[in-house]
């Protein structure tokens, strides 16, 4: 991953026109040793420069109206619980129902055939593949032109930052183009709307896999259904890794 020089500018990322930005959070434990949550997942959202402001504004307005008690960052684990009132859940999902907003995810579970020391490298490779697929979808929708700039913004994790830097590829293949992949980290405390969305997506992926492992592999949670299955490609891209080779 190529480091972006804007990573410490007070939570602000300077982006030029025709920049595709991926906002990423993680869920679970890369050692897969939590018996109640034996997964490791990346999830998030993506959009282009030209649509950042209206999408962010819609989220902030929803947050102010639906979660008025929240000061600072909206945190899925703390504020978006399983028993969230239906009115709030629907408002949350509606604020992400933009035709210019993609969502993506990749997950490794305790059932995945992969050495434990390869969990993060494999997750980073499959995440980069999601980036490439989303980028191609953005081209199909005439939202982005290749070879444009691509930036991945990760919620900062002192536990994972170094591993992500080492294992996320420096470029992604988008059609005939090999596009450089820039990356940076942003703290949750800045309450960036897109990182809050990414947190919600990653949490939704984790809860969905947990539900499927415990209850029914053929069904999914309501939030996963709304975020991924009802949206579908090219704006929704998700994979559960069953085995990793090499």
Distance separating the two termini: 20 Å
**What percent strand?**
25-35%
For this structure, what is the CATH class? Alpha Beta
Shape: globular
Which terms would index this structure?
about 250 residues; alpha/beta; Nucleotidyltransferase, domain 5; 8-stranded mixed sheet
Give a verbal description of the structure:
The protein is of the alpha/beta class. It has one domain: Nucleotidyltransferase, domain 5 (2-Layer Sandwich), CATH 3.30.420. Strands 1, 2, 3, 4, 5, 6, 7 and 8 form an eight-stranded mixed β-sheet that branches. Helix 4 packs across helix 5. About 3% of the residues have low confidence.
Topology record:
Layout: E1 2-3, E2 19-28, E3 39-48, H1 52-66, H2 76-79, H3 86-94, E4 102-113, H4 119-140, E5 149-155, H5 161-167, E6 171-174, E7 177-186, H6 193-214, H7 222-229, E8 236-243
Parallel strand pairs: 1-7, 2-5, 4-8, 5-7
Antiparallel strand pairs: 2-3, 3-4, 6-7
Q: In short, what is this structure?
A:
The protein is of the alpha/beta class and 246 residues long.
């Amino acid at each position: 991953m190529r480091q972006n020089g804007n990573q410490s500018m007070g939570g602000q990322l300077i982006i030029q026109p025709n920049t595709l930005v991926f906002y990423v959070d993680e869920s679970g434990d890369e050692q897969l040793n939590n018996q109640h949550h034996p997964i490791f997942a990346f999830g998030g959202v993506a959009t282009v420069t030209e649509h950042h402001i209206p999408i962010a504004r819609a989220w902030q307005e929803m947050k102010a109206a639906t979660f008025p008690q929240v000061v600072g960052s909206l945190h899925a684990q703390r504020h978006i619980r399983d028993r969230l009132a239906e009115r709030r859940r629907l408002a949350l999902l509606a604020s992400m129902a933009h035709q210019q907003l993609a969502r993506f995810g990749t997950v490794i579970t305790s059932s995945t055939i992969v050495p434990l020391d390869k969990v993060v490298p494999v997750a980073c490779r499959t995440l980069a593949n999601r980036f490439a697929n989303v980028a191609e979808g953005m081209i199909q929708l005439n939202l982005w032109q290749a070879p444009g700039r691509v930036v991945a913004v990760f919620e900062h994790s002192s536990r994972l930052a170094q591993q992500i830097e080492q294992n996320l590829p420096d470029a992604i293949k988008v059609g005939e183009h090999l596009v450089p992949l820039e990356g940076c980290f942003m703290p949750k405390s800045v309450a960036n709307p897109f990182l809050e969305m990414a947190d919600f997506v990653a949490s939704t992926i984790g809860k969905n896999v947990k539900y499927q492992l415990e209850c029914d592999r053929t069904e999914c949670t309501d939030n996963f259904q709304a975020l991924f299955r009802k949206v579908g490609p090219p704006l929704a891209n998700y994979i559960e890794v069953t085995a990793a080779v090499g």
